[in-house]
Amino acid sequence: MDEEIKVFLTFFIIFSYFAYWASWNEESTYSLVKSVVEENRFEIDTYKDSTGDRIHCSNNHYYSDKYPGLAFLSTPIYGIIKKTSIYFNLTKGSELFYFSDGVKLSYDVGFQINDISRLFLTMLTSSLFASLTVVLLFKFLKTQPLRIKKYRFVVITSFGIGSLLLPHSLVFTRHAITTFLFFFSLILIIINKKEKCVKKIFLSGCIYGIGILVSPLLIILSVPYVLYIKHLKKPVKYFIFGFSLGILPLLLYYIHTGFPVLPTFIKKLLGEYLPNLCWDQARVLYIRQSSLKNLIERFIFTSPQTLVYPSKGLFFYYPFLILLLFFNILRKKHTDEKFFLITSLLIVTIFISIMPLWWGGWSGYGPRYFSPIIPLFYLWSTGIFSRINWKIWSIPLILSMLTNFLLLQYGEDMIHELPSEIYIEKLKNFQILSNPLLEHYLPLFLKNGPRSMLFESLILDGTIDIRLSVHSCGLSSPTIKRDEIFLSSLPNSILTLRVPFLCLIPLILSLLFLWRNDILKKFKLNRKKFSIVLLVSLIMFTLCFLRIRTWIYGENWQSQELSGKKIEVNNRWMSQNASIILFNNNNKMGKSNLLFKVENFHKPRTLLIFLNDKQIGNYEINGTKIINQEMNLRPKKNEIIFYSIEGCDRPTELGLHDCDLRCLSFKISNIEIRNLE
Amino acid sequence: MPNKKNVVYKLFKDKENLLIFCIVFGIVVLSIGVYLVGYHIPFGSTILTMGSGIFYISVIFFVFLLI
Questions:
Q1: Residue B17's domain spans which residues?
Q2: Burial grade of A87 (CB within 10 A; 0-12, 13-18, 19 or more)
Q3: Number of domains in chain B
Q4: DSSP class of A588
Q5: Does B14 touch chain A (CB under 8 A)?
Q6: pLDDT digits (tens, 9 = 90+) for A354-370
Q7: What is the rounded distance in angstroms from the CA atom of residue A124 to the CA atom of residue A623?
Q8: In terms of pLDDT, which residue wins out, A450 or A234?
Q9: Quick check: helix, strand or coil at residue A513?
Q10: Rounded CA gap, A426 and A415, in Å?
């Protein structure tokens, strides 16, 4: 197999494996995909309830507030899934409704076509194009002198796993594709630096135009980009021809929809000719209220936060990038490339700083608009590996990769949670606004391990639902649903499998299988030795995940909750019913006591306790109560079921907690089993 | 002077030309699709999907075969 194919497959497997679906952002684009394929229109009226990221226009239609490029590129994938789904008996679930700031929104559960679509749309857009970006860099490095070429695997590992590319390759948002299109367009030009290949310059323009269809950031990046092309003495006019063609779908989309995020001054200009243009009042108001002085102030105060501060600083999260930047700046040659990188970084920083929600909550690393320019850091700085001692570059490189592993968790929005006065005061005094890496991601990483939603949903629920939470408002628990799963009964206990970190086993195995020939060659092993080493390591590794227990949580428990910054390990909410599995290691019937604290949700409820399908307890719960239930356990495995006669209720439907879609009945705490005999 | 047949032959013989043609063709078809979907013309979404699909596949082939 070709090296490039293996590189592609490696990153494609990693990115797809950790893919997840977190927020309204993805739902907004997905709604547009479904509208185009199923209803042949750009209005998302039918699917508007699934997302809060939407624009309600004066023509009484709803539109997605995202640029349409990602949705257009996803239509073939969804079209194929839709056409083939008729040959399979896919289940149709139900829709739950919740409220966010008084707006009623829906959340679908159990629609298999949506689960399949979400997984494949993420894999075949963001993950696939991010892997192609790595391949492009790999191919570029192959054309470099030997001293650089020999570090090509270190460079691509650093780029693919230790940079901003990873967090965006996992979600169905535009940033990974924008990065690919921007980099692809640039590579087409620089790879033929010495020749004036008109076709490729034209193609580069086309790709760049399509890039703008995906993300507005490329509009402002086009200034340093065109200056760079001009500096290379390439015929810019062919680039502009191609660009005009590439941007055509966006212009046509604008004409039909009056795209809501069109800059205000263009809207004013076009308003006379196209009176049906859709206006996003919130954004228009924001631009109108922001004077130049205001924008400059915002840039001064927020740029340190977006570049170096722990809140959302690019160089804090990825220290290896700062090394690459300094190396690039300190070089005597390549002034045009230096200028291109620095101006692009400056432009993107300004762009992010003046955005109203510059910190970009609920995504691993917030200021996501930096992602398209990340390849520029690597493109001309790879000499760092051969010129600087490995001890200097390896530490920031490892830290950058570690950051990305920590970020494989449920997101946060700590800055948004700050009271506005404290936020302004801290911002203006250049103080740290938040430290999510240490306060949010690290504790969750230690609790959950890196989270692969595909693996978790397969092993815990037998589905392929990759949504990270039960909803997108961010109020559900960020912890893994179940820590341990029942494996089998042993002669005197229960054998369980620990779920956190377990997802690494299939990933490592598949990567080892892919690179087996190279590993055999490198370590001079034969196949037999390699298989034995692999088998022994696999057994050792799997043994680390086995646990022996006397009881474990069974089905229908909600995830553990965060109380402040602490995870409540001993408390669990249950749905209408929930079970625990316990083991009696006597060979005869034995008396035991079940002790626990119980609290009802919202209204008085009746709790029934069943032991092996026989009712053993009936309690009226109104408030908190400690229960001591006597049980007569049969030998070996026993199952206790807690049951709420009144069923369960959803906090969002009762107006108690916006967005909370969990169905709750009782909170059971501090379960203890005491053997009497 | 090559006749029409030769031009077409040349175009499809050279992988680079063929893939560039496919990418550009994909963008053109995608644009037509966007235009048609805007007017709710029934086959608009099929055209848009086709254009997008042609672009998508050609780009992947281009990355692997020609760079």
A1: 4-66
A2: exposed
A3: 1
A4: S
A5: no
A6: 888 888 877 767 788 99
A7: 50
A8: A450
A9: helix
A10: 11
Cβ neighbours of A75 in B, within 8 Å? 45, 48-49, 52-53
Q: Mind listing the pLDDT tens digit for each residue in A328-348?
A: 888 877 788 888 999 999 999
pLDDT of residue B7: 64
Cβ distance A40 to A13 under 8 Å? Answer: no
Residues 6+ apart with CB under 8 A from A636: A489, A583, A584
CA distances from A190 to A53, A199, A292, A328 (A): 38, 14, 37, 17
In terms of average pLDDT, the best of A485-489, A625-629, A649-653 is A625-629
The DSSP code sequence of A59-77 is TS-EEESS-THHHHHHHHH
Our CA-based measurement puts residue A266 at a distance from the nearest CA of chain B, in whole angstroms, of 20
- Token duo for residue A343: 């101006």
Residue A551 exposure: Cα atoms within 13 Å on the Cβ side: 18
Has residue A292 got a pLDDT over 90? no
The DSSP letter of residue A358 is T
Predicted confidence at residue A405, as pLDDT, reads 93
Which residues have CB under 8 Å from A496's CB, separation 6+? A484, A485, A486, A487, A546, A547, A548, A549, A552
User: Who contacts A406 (Cβ-Cβ below 8 Å, separation ≥6)?
Assistant: A437, A441, A442, A445
pLDDT at A471: 47
| Gap between the Cα atoms of A337 and A325, Å rounded | 12
Q: Which pLDDT score, from 0 to 100, does residue A371 have?
A: 94
Distance CA A513, CA A64 (A): 42
- Residue of chain A with shortest Cα separation from B35: A252
Look up residue A353 and give its two tokens.
């700083």
Q: Are strands A571-573 and A551-553 parallel, antiparallel or unpaired?
A: unpaired
Model confidence at B9, in pLDDT bands (50, 70, 90)? low
What is the complex's ipTM, to 2 decimals? 0.91
Residues in A lying within 8 Å of B, measured between beta carbons: 4-5, 8, 36-37, 40-42, 72-76, 79, 128, 132, 135-136, 139-140, 184, 187-188, 191, 199-200, 202-203, 206-207, 209-210, 245-246, 248-249, 252-253, 255-257
- Judged by CB atoms closer than 8 Å, whether chains meet at A255 and B38 is answered as yes
Rounded Cα distance between A346 and A299, Å, is 10
Q: Could you give the percent of chain A with pLDDT greater than 70?
A: 92
Rounded-to-integer distance, Cα A173 and Cα A112, Å: 21
Q: Given the DSSP bridges, would you call strands A577-584 and A636-644 parallel, antiparallel or unpaired?
A: antiparallel
Name the DSSP letter for residue A409: S
Please name the helix (run of DSSP H) or strand (run of DSSP E) that holds residue A533, with its range, or none: helix A527-543
3-state DSSP call for residue B28? helix
pLDDT of residue A56: 81
Q: How confident is the model at residue B8 (pLDDT cuts 50, 70, 90)?
A: low
Q: Please name the helix (run of DSSP H) or strand (run of DSSP E) that holds residue A146, with its range, or none.
A: helix A146-149
Q: How confident is the model at residue A472 (pLDDT cuts 50, 70, 90)?
A: very low
Domains for chain A: give ranges and CATH numbers. 3-414 (no CATH), 484-549 (no CATH), 552-675 (2.60.120.200)
Q: What is the pLDDT of residues A189-247, one digit of tens each?
A: 887 766 668 888 999 999 999 999 999 899 999 999 988 888 877 788 899 999 999 99
Is the Cβ–Cβ distance between A579 and A587 less than 8 Å? no
Interface test with A, best of B39, B52, B57 (most A CBs within 10 A): B52
Q: Find the length of chain B.
A: 67
How many Å apart are CA A394 and CA A162, to the nearest integer?
A: 11
Q: In this structure, what token pair is assigned to residue A254? A: 């604008």
